[in-house]
């Protein structure tokens, strides 16, 4: 492992460090399948951390555990300094608002019966969902993702896939959560549209307070978007560090294989 990995693990294990979210000795099983195995990692506040690995490595399981969709078998899920696994009722509902999830599919993640304004208003007030009441906040959210405020009056079928994904990003940021989990959000899009989303995320860095866990199998996209990268293999973290350190000097054989397999670049480098 890189030195950065050891530092992150040490800080989380000791309860130190300023993290938007972290997991400590996390295990997740579904029946006899042990999917996550003693995972300890952190998403530092204000950063974008890439989570990479092949299909079945446990990436999405980790993301869905952080947002509360999956329940851990053992271990801790820390949102800020609170253990998500130990809170219940209204306290748990409040903590769930601190972690927002952007799913992979921009076509099924938005209700076809709701206008964009209603969808964004619902993020702020699930019971009311009044787009008129929250008109200014909705307009600001749409402008943040480079859409016109008039988009609030339209339905999902009136948008392209890339525009729908921008709306999903806007929805996730409405509450200014501690952490946004972006789960393969470019993989269902055409290459040119992927590039637009990447440019959008790049432009937003430094302008929002939320940290992001960016789950992807595309290491080239992770390089462009993220500050740090975490590599998962068979339910375990095998490497973690800054983009520069891991991509230039990968320590684990699996990381080296991933970097060497980037399409169009058999010997992938940053140069």
TrEMBL record:
Question: Which GO annotations describe the biological process of this protein?
Answer: transmembrane transport
UniProt name for this protein: ATP-binding cassette domain-containing protein
Check the record and name the Gene3D superfamilies matching this protein. Answer: P-loop containing nucleotide triphosphate hydrolases
Q: What Gene Ontology terms describe what this protein does at the molecular function level? A: ATP binding; ATP hydrolysis activity
InterPro entries this protein is in? AAA+_ATPase, ABC_transp_ATP-bind, ABC_transporter-like_ATP-bd, ABC_transporter-like_CS, P-loop_NTPase
Family, as annotated: Belongs to the ABC transporter superfamily.
What's in the keyword line of the UniProt record?
Answer: ATP-binding, Nucleotide-binding, Transport
Recorded superkingdom: Bacteria
Residues in domain ABC transporter?
Answer: 21-259
Which is an annotated Pfam family here? ABC_tran
């Amino acid at each position: 492992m890189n030195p950065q990995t050891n530092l992150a693990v040490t800080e989380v294990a000791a309860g130190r460090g300023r993290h938007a979210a972290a997991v400590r000795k996390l295990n997740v099983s579904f029946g006899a399948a042990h999917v996550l195995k003693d995972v300890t990692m952190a998403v530092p506040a204000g950063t974008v951390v890439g989570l990479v690995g092949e299909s079945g490595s446990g990436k999405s399981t980790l993301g869905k555990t952080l947002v509360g969709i999956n329940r851990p078998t053992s271990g801790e899920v820390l949102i800020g300094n609170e253990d998500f696994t130990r809170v219940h009722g209204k306290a748990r509902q409040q903590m769930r608002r601190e972690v927002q999830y952007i799913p992979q599919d921009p076509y099924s993640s938005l209700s076809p019966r709701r206008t964009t304004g209603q969808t964004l208003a619902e993020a702020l007030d699930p019971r009311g969902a009044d787009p008129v009441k929250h008109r200014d906040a909705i307009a600001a959210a749409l402008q943040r993702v480079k859409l016109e405020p008039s988009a609030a009056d339209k339905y999902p079928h009136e948008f392209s896939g890339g525009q729908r994904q921008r709306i999903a990003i806007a929805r996730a940021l409405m509450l200014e959560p501690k952490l946004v989990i972006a789960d393969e959000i470019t993989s269902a899009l055409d290459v040119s549209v992927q590039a637009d989303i990447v440019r959008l995320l790049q432009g937003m860095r430094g302008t929002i307070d939320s940290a992001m866990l960016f789950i992807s199998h595309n290491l080239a996209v992770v390089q462009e978007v993220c500050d740090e990268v975490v590599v998962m293999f068979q339910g375990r973290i095998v490497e973690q560090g800054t983009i520069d350190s891991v991509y230039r000097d990968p320590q684990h054989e699996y990381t080296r294989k991933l970097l060497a397999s980037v399409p169009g670049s058999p010997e992938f480098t940053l140069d």
